[in-house]
Design brief:
Strands 1, 2, 3, 30, 31 and 32 form a six-stranded antiparallel sheet that branches. The chain is mostly beta strands and 422 residues long. Strand 27 and strand 28 form a beta hairpin. The protein has one helix spanning 325-328, and strands spanning 7-9, 19-21, 25-27, 38-41, 47-51, 59-65, 70-72, 77-78, 83-88, 94-99, 106-111, 116-118, 137-139, 145-150, 153-160, 163-166, 171-172, 179-182, 188-192, 198-204, 207-210, 222-227, 233-238, 242-249, 254-262, 269-270, 276-279, 282-287, 290-293, 307-311, 317-322, 331-337, 354-355, 362-376, 381-385, 389-393, 400-408, 413-420.
Length: 422
C-alpha cells in the first residue's frame, strides 16, 4: 500500500486580533503535491477533509482535532484521478467527493471506527454516479441525502437502510447543474449553471418545486453560491465580482437582496444561520443588518493563487486550503475566533436567546427547545436531551466555552455559544 507522509510544521502564529490558529499547519510532502485544493469542515469544526487534483497526489484525507492537534482519521484514500471537491456530514463520519479526469465519478464513504469504507448499495439507481465534469456536490447534516449535478441536470439521492434511491424527480433544464447546495435537512436545494440565474427548489411530496423566481437577472449572472442551514439565506458571487446575501421573504414569496460586498475572491462560504461568511482571508458577520469584518485578515500562507475556504455551523471556526503554498506542496490551516459572537440568531424572522450567559448553573431558553446537544470546543458531547424544555442545568460542567445545538418547537435549528463560569 502506498504510504504518504506529511511534514507537520509548528510555526509561531502572531495574534493580531481574535482569530487564532488551531493546531499545526498540514503541508504536503512534495513539491506540486497541491493539498488544500478542496477543503471542508464538519458542522462543529473538529473534523476536516481535504484533497488534491495534482498528478503526484490524487488523494483524499480526513483529519480530526485531538486536543488542538490535527490527527489523521482513517486511511488515505487513493484515486485514479485528482479530487475536485470534498464534503462532510455534520459529525464528520460520512465523506463524499468527486474526481476530475476520464473517471469523473462520485464517491461516498463512511467511517466505521477505524477506516473509511464504501457507503451503501447503488444498484437501485438508474443513472451512473458521474459528475460529467467539475460540478459541485453536497450532503445534508445527517449524511443520508446527497445532491450532485451534471450538464443541465441535478440528482438527489437518499440512503434508506443502506440502499441509495433517488428522491424527487431529476431537475433538468437551462440554468441548473453547475453548482449544487443543500440545506442541512436536505429538503431545500440551490442550483445554477455557470453565469446563469440561480434557482431554489424545495422537496414537497417527493417533488422538487421551485420557490421564488430566478435569484438574479441575466445581466448579473451567478458564478458561485452557498446556502444557509435552513435554506432561507443565500450567499452568491456574480459576474460583477460582488458577493451578495439574499433572504427568502415569506410574504412576497421571493428572494430579496439584503447585503452586497465587492470581493474578487472566487467563492465564499456561509455558516448555518447565514449571519457569518468567509471569503478568502476575510470573515464577515451581520451586525445590525450590516456585514462587517470579524477580526483580522487570516494568514493564508501565500499571496494570490486559488484559496479554498470552509466554515463551521457556528461561524467561529474556519479553514483555508492553499494549493500553491511552498512550491505547490499545498497547505491546510484552521482558525478559531476567540471573541464574542454574542447570541446566535437563525435569521431576522425568528430568534432564540439564552440567559444568563455566562451561566453558573441553570441556563434558560427564550422558547421551548428539544433534541439539543451541548459540545465542548473539541467536539465532544458533554450533555444532551430529547425532552421539550426551556431550561437546562449546567452546574456539573467545567468552566469553559461550549456550543449548544438543537431545534425549536417549530423544528427550526439553532446553534449558540455559551460560557460556563462559576
Amino acid at each position: 500500500m502506498k504510504k504518504i507522509i506529511f511534514f507537520i510544521l509548528f510555526l509561531p502564529f502572531t495574534i493580531y486580533s481574535q482569530w487564532t490558529q488551531i493546531g499545526q499547519d498540514i503541508v504536503g510532502e512534495e513539491n506540486m503535491f497541491g493539498i488544500g485544493g478542496t477543503v471542508k469542515l464538519n458542522a462543529i469544526g473538529d473534523v476536516i477533509a481535504f484533497g488534491s487534483f495534482y498528478e503526484s497526489c490524487k488523494c483524499v484525507y480526513v483529519y480530526e482535532n485531538v486536543n488542538d492537534s490535527w490527527v489523521q482519521k482513517g486511511q488515505t484514500i487513493f484515486l485514479e484521478d485528482g479530487v475536485s471537491q470534498v464534503t462532510l456530514n455534520e459529525t464528520g463520519d460520512v465523506l463524499v467527493f468527486d474526481t476530475f479526469g476520464f473517471n469523473q465519478n462520485l464517491f461516498l464513504y463512511y467511517f466505521n471506527g477505524s477506516e473509511w469504507v464504501t457507503y451503501g448499495d447503488f444498484s437501485n439507481l438508474d443513472f451512473p454516479l458521474k459528475t460529467d465534469g467539475y460540478y459541485p456536490i453536497d450532503i445534508n447534516h445527517n449524511g443520508d441525502i446527497v445532491s450532485f449535478g451534471t450538464y443541465e441536470k441535478v440528482f438527489v439521492i437518499k440512503n434508506n437502510n443502506g440502499i441509495w434511491e433517488q428522491i424527487g424527480q431529476t431537475i433538468e433544464g437551462d440554468g441548473v447543474g453547475s453548482f449544487v447546495r443543500l440545506s442541512s435537512d436536505g429538503q431545500t436545494l440551490f442550483t445554477t449553471a455557470y453565469k446563469s440565474k440561480g434557482k431554489v427548489f424545495k422537496l414537497t411530496n417527493n417533488t422538487w418545486e421551485q420557490i421564488g423566481s430566478g435569484i438574479i437577472g441575466a445581466s448579473i449572472q451567478i458564478t458561485a453560491a452557498d446556502i444557509s442551514s435552513d435554506g432561507s439565506t443565500l450567499l452568491i458571487k456574480n459576474t460583477n465580482n460582488n458577493k451578495a446575501i439574499l433572504r427568502f421573504n415569506q410574504n412576497s414569496n421571493d428572494w430579496e437582496l439584503i447585503y452586497e460586498l465587492f470581493s474578487p475572491a472566487p467563492y465564499g462560504n456561509l455558516n448555518s444561520s447565514g449571519d457569518i461568511f468567509i471569503t478568502t482571508s476575510k470573515v464577515y458577520q451581520n451586525q445590525n443588518g450590516n456585514y462587517t469584518q470579524l477580526g483580522q485578515d487570516l494568514d493564508i500562507g501565500v499571496e494570490g493563487g486559488f484559496i479554498e475556504t470552509s466554515i463551521n455551523d457556528m461561524g467561529d471556526i474556519v479553514a483555508i486550503g492553499s494549493e500553491l503554498y511552498d512550491e505547490g506542496k499545498g497547505l491546510v490551516r484552521v482558525f478559531r475566533y476567540d471573541g464574542d459572537l454574542s447570541v446566535f440568531s437563525i435569521n431576522t424572522d425568528y430568534n432564540i436567546t439564552v440567559y444568563p450567559n455566562p451561566v453558573r448553573d441553570i441556563l434558560y431558553f427564550s422558547d421551548f427547545v428539544q433534541n439539543f446537544i451541548i459540545y465542548d470546543l473539541t467536539g465532544k458531547i458533554v450533555k444532551s436531551s430529547k425532552e421539550l424544555t426551556n431550561q437546562v442545568n449546567l452546574s456539573n460542567l467545567a468552566n469553559g466555552t461550549y456550543i449548544i445545538k438543537g431545534n425549536m418547537k417549530s423544528q427550526k435549528s439553532f446553534s449558540i455559544k455559551i460560557i460556563k463560569a462559576n
